[in-house]
Amino acid sequence: MKKIVILGAGESGAGAAVLAKTKGYETFVSDMSTIQNRYKELLDKHDIAWEEGKHSEDLILDADEVIKSPGIPNDAPLVLKLQAQGTPIISEIEFAGRYTNAKMICITGSNGKTTTTSLIYHIFKSAGLNVGLAGNIGNSLALQVALEDHDYYVIELSSFQLDNMYQFRANIAILMNITPDHLDRYDHSMQNYIDAKFRITQNQTQDDAFIFWNDDPIIKQELKKYGLQAHLYPFSALKENNSVAFLEDKELKITEPIAFNMEQEKLALTGQHNLYNSLAAGISANVAGITKDNIRKALSDFQGVEHRLEKVARVRGIDFINDSKATNVNSCWYALQSMTTKTVLIIGGKDKGNDYSEIEDLVKKKCSALVYLGLHNEKLHESFDKLGLPVADIQTGMKDAVEAAYKLAQKGETVLLSPCCASFDLFKSYEDRGEQFKKYVREL
Q: What pLDDT is attached to residue 366?
């Protein structure tokens, strides 16, 4: 019996373990951290052996194949030992793809991928298709392949997930944009990060579609290197550069494969960045053969994504917006660009090699004050103190940050949590950070 070891027992790892067990593999799960109770219960239910708080190297190095959690870096000592002895290391997505013939709609990019993924899923679901939501959101793809049976999967893919995918094929691949992110994981090499993103196109055939933002200079440059077989569907804000989807005369227009149009004011999502999300989602649905009426309806009644420019409350004339999912500088740039009032920006967390100069002009133009929230705010002081804005330095937690922002804000202004950084210095996750923000805002 072939032996599979899963490193990491989070959503993807636990799901991969269940799929491996149902396919007859000898399955073992190992996690250096404490495994959440719900995943322990799932593993126990399927009679899967697991360990937490350690890695038993003798058991792991004896595996025929290893499925690695995307959160474990490729240069982790145990991973290097596995590589040295030639043990195949794959991702949960790669493993799950072996056991389903469903159509795969895969979305990546530095920003916008969660909203676009959720929007595409909403369109497919509203059209009555048998579709699953997977990847960074929803249940793991492997768990759904093991226990359910979908015709389509809409999958949000991070660069980490793409790193260990080799034979997996996206029938529709979407690349929203590429801006610096996670460079600490890629030897501080932008090219390494770019190469990871473009792995979404590997194995595509002439029957497949590649949808991408045509105005992204990095994507345009990289496309010249690839002899892509997939049909190309570039989108842009304006009708130019051979784009098949764009905005013209206040209408969203798609020219291929079937002509489609919709008034911009009827889109549920507003702002320039959401126009791109709607264009990419519209093309995807169009390529999949969903009717124009169903696409229009779903684009107009989509509810948005939690922790992404989420309106929380208005307190004594001050609006509070939760954009905790903004874990890189470019994402914060989009958030600031969409602000229509003076803004108190809550920024900071675990820096990933950020270059804050990208948002300096917007901070100068849009912000009335800044709240630095993190254990190490030195880089924020260095980047923004020179602008002369009022600043609060908070190293304790969200409650104090919300109270500081509330004191700094004037009636008619907005308090925006858009941190630019990972959450792991003070919070369990960006979701935890956003939930705490909402909790303390509602307590004001």
A: 97
Angle, CA 162 vertex, CA 156 and CA 167 arms, to 5°: 110
* Distant-in-sequence, close-in-space partners of 167: CB < 8 Å, separation ≥ 6: 94, 97, 98, 203
Q: DSSP class of residue 110?
A: S
User: Cα-atom radius of gyration of the chain, to the nearest Å?
Assistant: 22
- Tokens standing for 33? 């951290």
What integer pLDDT is reported at residue 184 of this predicted model?
A: 63
Whether the CB-CB separation of 317 and 414 falls below 8 Å is answered with no
| Residue of 3, 2, 53 lying closest to 28 (CA atoms) | 3
Residue 400's identity, in one-letter code, is D
What is the DSSP-derived secondary structure letter of residue 169? -
Nearest to 20 by CA among 41, 56, 47, 59: 47
Distances 312 to 30, 44, 206, 300, 308 between C-alpha atoms, Å: 39, 39, 45, 21, 11
CB under 8 Å, gap of 24 or more: what pairs does 204-207 form? 204/169, 204/170, 204/173, 204/228, 204/229, 204/230, 205/169, 205/229, 205/230, 206/230, 206/231, 207/171
- Residue 179: phi, psi to the nearest 5? -130, 160
Query: Which segments in the chain show pLDDT lower than 70?
Result: 180-188
Task: Give the burial class of 379: count Cβ atoms within 10 A of its Cβ; 0-12 exposed, 13-18 middle, 19 or more buried.
Answer: middle
Cis peptide, bond prior to residue 257, ω within 30 of zero: yes
Cα separation, 31 vs 107, whole angstroms: 28
Q: What domains, with CATH codes, occur in the chain? A: 3-90 (3.40.50.720), 94-301 (3.40.1190.10), 310-442 (3.90.190.20)
Per-residue model confidence (pLDDT) at position 398? 97
Distances (CA, A) of 345 to 362, 368, 392, 405, 415: 11, 8, 10, 8, 6
Q: Which long-range contacts (CB under 8 A, 24 or more apart) does 308-317 make?
A: 308/114, 308/115, 309/271, 309/335, 309/338, 310/434, 310/438, 312/437, 312/438, 312/441, 312/442, 313/441, 313/442, 313/444, 315/406, 315/441, 315/444, 316/411, 317/411, 317/412
pTM, two decimal places: 0.80
Predicted pLDDT of residue 193: 84
**How many whole angstroms separate alpha carbon 418 and alpha carbon 401?**
12
What pLDDT is attached to residue 351? 86
Type of residue numbered 259: A
